[in-house]
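User:
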Amino acid sequence: MGIQEEYLTVPQVAELLKVSKVAVYKKIKTGTLVAVRMGRNYLVPKDQANPLKRPLTEADKRQVEQHVKRAFRDYGDVLKWLAKE
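Assistant: Predicted structure:
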């Protein structure tokens, strides 16, 4: 099995996850996405790039919690109104 079959490039991961390349680099920098540096590029193991196959890391859980808190802070009144419907 060659390296091309085991790893994905940042643009490939971005397309797979439906996010920008910048978002992928941020995930690599924060440690929410494991990557190997090859020269000036990063390669992401295929099992790390599929969010449905890998378990949530602690960093993933913290990020989800932050987004939920932000959603309630910004849209709490609307969510309460919708719950009454």
